[in-house]
Amino acid sequence: MRSKICSRPVSTAATRRQFLYGLGASLGSVALTGMLAADDVPQASALAPRKSHFKPRAKNVIMLFMEGGPGQMDTFDPKPQLSKLHKTESQNDRGLAAGQFQFYVGSPFGFTKAGKSGMDMCDQWKYMRDPDVADELCNYRGCYADSLNHPEALFHMNTGSRLGADPSLGAWATFGLGSSNENLPGYVVMTESALPQGGSRNWSNGFLPAHYQGTRLRPVGSPILDLQSQPFKSRAHQREALDELAFLNRQHALKHPEHADLAARMESYELAFRMQTEVPDVVNLDGETESTREMYGMNDKATQNFGRQCLMARRLVEQGVRFVQIFSGGWDSHDYLERGHSSRIRSVDRPMAALIKDLKQRGMLDDTLVIWTGEFGRTSDNNRRGGVYSIGRGHNADAMTMLLAGGGVKRGAMVGATDEIGSKAVEVKHPIRDFHVTLLHLLGLDDNKLTYFHAGRYKQLSQFGGEVIKDLLA
Known about the structure:
Alkaline Phosphatase, subunit A; two-stranded antiparallel ribbon; 18 strands; 31% helix; disordered N terminus
């Protein structure tokens, strides 16, 4: 009998140790042993497309993550009452030490209504106010977090766990649905020069197989190293080397079925080989028109980095990548709120608007879910930090603002509300796990059915269940 992926014969005779291991192991291990032995049956890719649990509203996700926590009352949730209280003593009792003064902080920005929907936006948003963009948005103001600590809150929003050891949103999505392009990763991540707090654990595969970890594209230089082979190594040479390596790995896997990660490693080699032919074209933006580059702000120093990443995100989902995540840092404005937030808004405003308009023009917005969020919101007061001339806000897990567009969510809608000074969510109030369950629902996945057996029990993204936020659905 000969292998389908190499020219050498592969022995399928099970050793006594393998047989005993198969008897004492889980059904998954027995199945893996059987698949490795049945080399006359081609193995399906772990990222092959899979059916959703029910009809999906969205097929792809682009998540724009504003690391640090944007102020809800400084972006999309105006609070006139808070402006009236500006610099008056805060009534929040946080055990002030002697000599400390905690005061309310009104937003340094004015607010306008955008589009036919009257979407609330601070006056720093220029391109997002375009009616073609504003009327596609769903502004959700009822979500709340569980942690005030950046790494924990980042892990929670990205993985459903505050510990940072569980699978990320993109990993769960690709585990449930696979990818429609076998030559590209199913889950792609882009960051600025510095990684978000917690690093790659924010896009980890956790306890899921290694296939589902996010693939990070580098912000400068070649997005992925070693995409091009050395001149002396032809594609045929690489194919032959991979076939020989596959033969050795399969022989090893037959002897050691307990090493489940080996199958993922073998497939990663094959994916890397295929990526060499397709990734260079996808990440090369030279073929885009000048008007498209201008629309995304790639000719402006303030927006060129985020604009490039948003344009690349559109190209990636267009080619079948299931989940794309872009991290933008610098939103943690404890001090100098006006300067910090105005700078960050300017850096993402034009690219975000361009992404939504571009997806819409190409007929992709209906089945692509775009999400804008941070890990938590901000306090209505200075949280004992910053002086009169360096006004800022503390971390707030009780209130935050999210934007959603496309992918089956309501258009031109403002859902939920915070109290009159923006300190707490009070209407359509839901924890992050419900947002996660809703995200999976839009992808046609049931959180209670999308499970993985690990450490003696079946685990899921929401940890212990949640509910769909029906108010967000179109």
